[in-house]
Amino acid sequence: MQNLTINAGRLWDSIHETARFGACDGGGVDRLTLTDEDKRVRDWFCDTVEALGCTVTVDEVGNMFAHRPGKRDDLDPIAIGSHLDTQPTGGKFDGILGVLAGIEILRTLDEAGYITNAPLEIVNWTNEEGTRFSPAMLCSGVFAGVFPPDYAWSRTDRDGIRFDDALDRIGYRGTEKAGGHRLGAMFELHIEQGPILEAENCTIGVVTGVQGARWYDVRLAGSTGHTGATPMRLRRDALVGASELVLAVQRIAQDHGPEAVASVGRIDVAPNSRNVVPGEVSLSVDLRHPDDATLARMAESFEAELGRIADHHGLERDLTPVWDSPAVRFAPELIARVEAGAEQAGLRHRRLVSGAGHDAAYIARVTPTTMVFVPCLGGVSHNVAESTTLDECRAGAQTLLNAVIAHDNSLID
Amino acid sequence: MQNLTINAGRLWDSIHETARFGACDGGGVDRLTLTDEDKRVRDWFCDTVEALGCTVTVDEVGNMFAHRPGKRDDLDPIAIGSHLDTQPTGGKFDGILGVLAGIEILRTLDEAGYITNAPLEIVNWTNEEGTRFSPAMLCSGVFAGVFPPDYAWSRTDRDGIRFDDALDRIGYRGTEKAGGHRLGAMFELHIEQGPILEAENCTIGVVTGVQGARWYDVRLAGSTGHTGATPMRLRRDALVGASELVLAVQRIAQDHGPEAVASVGRIDVAPNSRNVVPGEVSLSVDLRHPDDATLARMAESFEAELGRIADHHGLERDLTPVWDSPAVRFAPELIARVEAGAEQAGLRHRRLVSGAGHDAAYIARVTPTTMVFVPCLGGVSHNVAESTTLDECRAGAQTLLNAVIAHDNSLID
What we know:
The structure is a homodimer of 413-residue chains.
Chain A: H1 8-18, E1 23-24, E2 28-29, H2 36-51, E3 55-58, E4 64-68, E5 78-82, H3 96-112, E6 120-124, H4 138-143, H5 149-154, H6 163-169, E7 185-191, H7 196-199, E8 204-210, E9 212-221, E10 225-226, H8 238-255, E11 261-263, E12 267-270, E13 276-277, E14 280-289, H9 292-313, E15 316-325, E16 328-329, H10 332-344, E17 349-354, H11 359-363, E18 369-374, H12 390-410
Parallel strand pairs in A: 5-6, 5-7, 7-18, 8-17
Antiparallel strand pairs in A: 1-2, 3-4, 4-6, 8-16, 8-18, 9-14, 9-15, 10-13, 11-14, 12-14
Helix pairs in contact in A: 1-3, 1-12, 3-12, 8-9, 10-12
């Protein structure tokens, strides 16, 4: 096998070139889905891949597929992809790194005159972030049959603008039926958005799946009262109950092993006044685990703790499940290719489970799929301070290239 | 001694007559200090007490004194007073009940042709609520020498209007020096603003003092992170620390006996997002106890707990003391008069310490002072739903009358 080596400087340049589309203060990027900035980066994508000899297909929800023919067009294409949209105060790497690494792989192959057995495709999935049009990972979800296209088209932003109108406006409603596109495998390179790789001094995360997650809204209601005039024994303090619940959620994570995470991210107190005993608290609970059975036990413990705490303090309680996302396990043969690819490149690597959701989590339902993570400084993302080094980008793209080539070779073994 | 009996219907009528000044939806009153509505109730007060033969004096910060001569003008006047201002969504009883009960006492004495030994004075203290011009109890504070008059005059409301300009505008800046007014004693009747009397089925609270209070602002800062991608062991979750602090504050109250109260009323989380580990929490802490030494020990425990919790979770902490109000003990001889007065009226009573601040707490620094409490439904105040019955108003005014007459008689024993 040839020694194919990524040109990290060229990849780095394309990262900075595309960061102009929606550039915002502090070095970040504000490129919400289906805006003028999104159109500009999509146009750039088309121009760039067409210059590399690819053909671009766009499906009915705006997902884009740049096709590079292989030696055997009877083989299903191997896809490399992620998303080009960002959060309102996003960074230069989240999403687009996985697309640009795909383009860099095409350039490396072109330079070497290398033709894969299967066709290669570089994919941009529409509206991964879900900030402008909720929910997140909308159009990889449509591709995977999780949502019907009508559902995506009818989503509206805060100004009441429909997804389909926004898609038409920028000229990216294609004719191909979503999900009608053949894919034999999908590889997604992404920044970790967490601190594990950095903490363990690894450059490559070999991602074995995506955690299952359950989200809840909780409301606890007691009685307000004057903080000076209401004796402790006559109080029904909703914040005291909420505080016990926050700590119970912590304990539930600790009780279910190092892979469990559980969080209260949002808490709103009423009336939230210095000298009034809190009468009502609303809060969000987020439970995650890579194993669905364990996650179900965590959810059971949480519901039991909520009941116990509310009863103990005489609080009313409402529990509303808002999201239930089963765990995803990526394709073992592709995971092994990524691991071997990192090894081949001499990179420190470890297996991990993605804590965040990704397009790959939906695509895995319909196509063998896996992911590669590279570190981001301090685990920070969705922030203009998001930072990944040139060497880390090189490492991710090289691992991806090694994995794709090895997988492609395996198709004709 | 004559059998002097309050006319509860007449008192009730005056409560409803004055509730027109600033009447708001739901049966409440919005009568912020030094507004047109405050001028209207002050004018009503002047007209009413002058019709009863009183002379009104106004001091330089707008405190009003209605003087009814006694048999012996060498004796210092006995004052009965409270405040006529309300919260923006106040009730019909908070403050004004203590002034109107004084007027009802004058009417009862007039009908009986009863002349006290010492002069009687009915007092309206300016700006007890502190909502428009902070701090609360501003002008009883000036009277007691806690604040200089310049301090009061220079306070500004949210629109930048100065206190002295507002006072001039409604024509209630008097010429008498604040604190220059002779007073021999002060009795303040007020609604409890807490649930103790109702819970113990008592009609009269014999108030022995006002709790000491210490208020703090606390800021805890950790690190934000993705709730899915940040393992528990790598978190510095500010809300977890804050929740432990809320529970520590509870325990501190429980550890210092039934009279201790301690509360976290306000909590603000940043970024307060469902899928972000909380990076920063600001919260308020309110510690109160009738005994200053005990309160100091509570404050010590609180500071130690804050340090321990912040260190344990690796959180930065800022602690800002915002208020330190020493405990007040009312005059024992006046407390005994109130107790005897309730007994004489055949009313269930109990001693208690005020949890809330009152004008009487400042006046007690310069004049023998005490208070009488009557229940309010569910302990609710600062709310349009504030409710006290005709019988409870009767009980409070009768107890006050009995106590004042007994005290007056004691002056010439």
